[in-house]
Amino acid sequence: MSIQLTVNGVSRELDVDPDMPLLWAIRDHLELPGTKFGCGMALCGACTVHIDGAPTRSCITPVSAVAGKSVTTIEGLATAAAKAVQEAWVALDVPQCGYCQSGQIMSASALLASNPQPSDADIDAAMAGNICRCATYVRIRSAIHQAAGALAAPQSKGT
Amino acid sequence: MYLRYREDGDAGRATGLTRRQFLELTTLAGTGLTLGVVLPGCSPAGTGTGTAAAAGPSAPLEMPFVRIAPDNTVTVISKHLEAGQGVWTGLPAIVAEELDASWEQMRVESAPAKVPLYQNMAFVPLGVHAQFTGGSTAVANSWQQLRQAGATARAMLVAAAARQWKVPPAEVTVSEGVVAHAASGHKASFGELAGGAALQPVPAQVKLKDPASFRIIGREHLPRLDAKAKSSGTQQYAIDVRLPGMRTAVVLRPPRFGGKVKSFEAARARAVPGVVDVVEIPRGVAVVARDMYAAQKGRAALEVSWDESAAEKRGTTQLMKEYRELARGKQALVAAQAGDADKALAHAVHRVEGEFEFPYLAHATMEPLTAVCSASADKCEIWAGCQMQTLDQATAATILGLKPEQVTIHTLAAGGTFGRRATPDSDFVSEVTSIVKATGAKYPVRLVWTREDDITGGRYRPLNYHRIEAGIDKDGKVAWRQRLVGQSIIAGTPFEPVMMKNGLDPTAFGGNAAEEYDLDHTHVSWTRAKVGVPVLWWRSVENTHTAYSKEVMMDELARAAGEDPVAFRLAHLGKHPRHVAALKLAAEKAGWGQPFAKQGGRGRGIAVHESFGTVVAQVAEVTVKGDHLTVDRVVCAVDCGIAVTPDVVRAQMQSAIGFGLSAALSGRITLTDGHVDQTNFHQYTVLRLPDMPRTIEVYIVPSTNAPSGVGEPGTPPIAPAVANAVRDAVGVKLHTLPFDLAAARRAHG
């Protein structure tokens, strides 16, 4: 069965088992390895992608559920919020092993897209689903605040 | 892991190597190794006479640890695994310093598996010649080696420039990646000079910088070389490797440790679309498929009958009961003894006792164990986050009937390790190689462990039991009697002959109070428990439990004597000046001694511990509401010698605090009748962002000593510091890990 979807702005066709988790479809069949496998049960957030802009755990989302929808992976992040997040991540040297950071950045950029000035409590709520075993959490929190500041700065065009 | 260094000599110690000896040995060995050793076939640098034709204006300068390319990039060859701890930044920083490079031109890549060239110098004095990353040794053992490498390359660039410009070498300067001669106005980049430098003889001696003139080492924020790749999804891990025709495999392993395959029925698994092979390997049955989804579906359809005659069938409740009994028995081996602990305890004015229980812990690296293997009749290539490259290489070679040099190891960035990828029997690398062998090497294989495979897969921090009786006499002298019971990590591995002496495994009891404090009467004994659950080093190894019972009991002694916890510790650290400095710095920065508002269930506690040559002190501030604990603030002081990359040091302290706190708050692997009870992150819960302390302050003790490690030493103090803070806040004694305040109130009243 062929499934049509848009991935990072490009229309793609997938000829896979409709029950296959989106994670494995994009990693093994669309060859986009930036989205990571961490738990397979939506417990760790490493596999987070945006589906029509909403952060979603791709490891439990069957490809059939995203037919006709727009999927954005870390490779396709292009919004002003996402750019600000990625720049803050580099500026503060957030990553350590780095494996969870695609998912962290997907969650953080979705947060800033819907809430440009998040409080610590907002960050707690939005980021609690993303595990980092290197515990880079202090810097993740700081980087989200820094990205929010960059987006709010009058001279900023979000880049 | 594995090694403990000490400042002062102690001939009676099991590991035998003092910090001073270690530094001397690595310094000498580093000098000998670096110079004159050039990768075979790479460049004429090792034999250069200035006339060789192979190099030239557009050729690179290629040395064992450094490559300077015509495009002006300087690539450091890292013999160590980058698993988050920052070696891909720290090692290039050392080279860049002596080379006087610009940080922007620095790059890094993994070294091939090769000894003695890329062996870990820290273990050479023990007779271990292996390339591996562990024991927080990466920067420490590379320090002299890479300074020499950078200074050597610099001297060759200078010689090339002097020759080209016909000026005296002594008048040539190097700064920020630019080689210049002021009087003549000549200037050149490293890239422009690389080809000429490759024609220069390797100098027999080079002068290293005076540390006072360091400008890259010690820079407050030296950007990580891997930050951009790791913030854009482009960093490649083993799980991301794709080879033409590659298949994906998962393995069904025995449900109990020690079980074996009796027989299996593969028909249903083979019927799953996409499954291409089902093969038995020594560790279970592998399902090989077109993609991960099919492999998992195939595994779910597999029917295996297991031989569990030799399997471990005990549960952890039973094991802990047996450990308590073992602690009362007479099979203990004496690990440390001084004075007369029994007599001193009998005459103690103040006396405290405690029983401590520590669970098995999984590493739970974010990238589940993964390795890719491709082989033919006479060669094999492996892509993995290898932590013990030459052991992994030898294991793969043995499985395939090849020579080690026929196995190429591509060490990729690892999505975390915390010790898990340093398995002396190369578990996941041996599995993928076995699958390739069993499938006739028809296609490359990517082996992926699922999270369930990881959590239930053993190789845990060992279950441990400690019983401590401690006392203070009328003169303030401390007596300490401690019994430890746990499995040996080292026994049965290639490390046993060199690291276990008289049956004692130092990775089971090191870092106890007899080592870390000046105590008059000590008796520390260890009983080895024999259990079929595989165990492994877990970020800071034995210090994960020895520091805990030590620092909690020192606090209880101080409390019993009515003394301040900091003052009490200082009174017993006379021979440990680095402990004193770290403890004082942490206390000062935390405002210890200043009024502290305890209303609302607040408390604070302190702990100090040395591991891997680094001393860390931490003050934790907590709030306890009912049975709920929040860690509000941690103040950390660290003495790691010269801090090569201070921001990486801070990052490692933050990381280690989060990692240790995760275990203290909820980390626990339990077994029932030999079956692991936890399977994924819903049951093996780990620290998440809301539970991370809002404030972590890290202060680095100024030092001119050679660097020691920072990957692990931040872990041991956090749990006891928090436990001491809870005791301060609400008076509850926490002796069983992970913390359960309700249970602790019931147990200790």
How would you describe what is shown here?
The complex is a heterodimer of chains A (159) and B (749). Chain A contains 5 helices and 5 strands, in the order ββαβββαααα. Chain A has 159 residues and is of the alpha+beta class. A 5-stranded mixed beta sheet of chain A has the order 2-1-5-3-4, with helices on both faces. Chain A is globular and about 45 Å long. With 749 residues, chain B is of the alpha+beta class. Helices cover 29% and strands 22% of the residues of chain B. Mean pLDDT of chain B is 92; it is low at 1-54. The longest helix of chain B is centred in the N-terminal third of the chain and has 28 residues, at 138-165. At the A-B interface, helix 1, helix 2, helix 3, helix 4 and helix 5 of A face helix 18 of B.
Distance between the termini of chain B: 37 Å
C-alpha-based Rg of chain B, rounded? 27 Å
Major sheet of chain B: size, sense and barrel closure? Answer: 7 strands, mixed
CATH architecture descriptor of the largest domain in chain A: Roll
The main pleated sheet of chain A reads as: 5 strands, mixed
Give the CA-CA distance, first to last residue of chain A: 41 Å
Please name the CATH topology of the largest domain in chain B: Aldehyde Oxidoreductase, domain 4
Helix content of chain B: 25-40%
Name the beta content range of chain A: 5-15%
Number of helices of chain B: 20
Quantity of strands of chain A, as a count? 5
Structural class of chain A: alpha+beta
Name the overall outline of chain A: globular
Q: Could you state the CATH homologous superfamily of the largest domain in chain A? A: Beta-grasp domain
Q: Architecture of the largest domain in chain B in CATH?
A: 2-Layer Sandwich
Number of strands of chain B: 27
